[in-house]
Write a structure and sequence with these properties.
There is one protein chain. By secondary structure, the protein is an all-alpha fold. It has one domain. It has eight helices and no strands. Helix 5 packs across helix 6. The longest helix has 29 residues. The two termini are 35 Å apart.
């Protein structure tokens, strides 16, 4: 068998790498449901799909969008270096970013991560801790789980705290789900364009 026959089919490799991402989101969903049961923290009462919740979720995306705009355009050397490292990471992730995949990843992360970190952990902690600690503590874990670099972990943790704050203020998990998903759509689309520009 020659070397070419040993090589993976690119389409199969691409599909397999994307399946790993979907599998990770499925595990996050199972963890959310499992912890919801263990900690007796029901999720459904926290979800009210209303026009008001969607509106506030969209509005809550604006500060995140402003941060993303600054991040993508900043010429500060440390930010440029960090931004380039993130684009390089995603360019090597093993699958192609397409609009449908971006939508699926954004919605999947928005639903599963908000369910686990805000809907379960934050709500559970709020039952016996001050609101500030109930927001901050889950997002230390949230940041650590995104720790490709120290700065990335810190940014993820701060974004998580912001999402926790809007969940606390609204009392409706739909609001941070919408904000998280829309932010991820914007971030992933900008990443896709940056990768395409590198290969142009």
């Amino acid at each position: 068998m020659n070397e070419d026959e040993n090589e993976d089919d690119p389409a199969a490799s691409d599909a397999r790498a994307f399946a790993v991402i979907i599998g990770g989101m499925a595990l996050t969903l199972l963890a959310g449901l499992g912890f919801s049961f263990i900690l007796t923290t029901p999720i459904m009462p926290q979800l009210a799909l209303t026009f008001r919740a969607i509106f506030f979720g969209v509005a809550a995306t604006m500060p995140l969008g402003a941060f993303l705009y600054w991040f993508m355009r900043s010429n500060a050397p440390s930010i440029v270096k960090f931004r380039d490292s993130q684009i390089e990471f995603f360019s090597q992730i093993g699958f192609e970013f397409t609009p449908s995949r971006i939508a699926l990843m954004a919605i999947g992360a928005g639903v599963t991560e908000e369910l686990l970190f805000r809907g379960v952990f934050q709500t559970w902690l709020a039952g016996f801790l001050p609101a500030a600690l109930a927001i901050i503590l889950p997002n230390i874990v949230f940041g650590l789980l995104h720790a490709r670099t120290t700065l990335y972990a810190a940014i993820a943790g701060l974004v998580g705290c912001y999402l926790g704050l809007i969940f606390w203020a609204s009392g409706n998990l739909v609001v941070p789900v919408v904000a998280h998903a829309l932010y991820d759509v914007a971030a992933l689309e900008l990443t896709r364009r940056s990768i395409a520009a590198r290969h142009a």
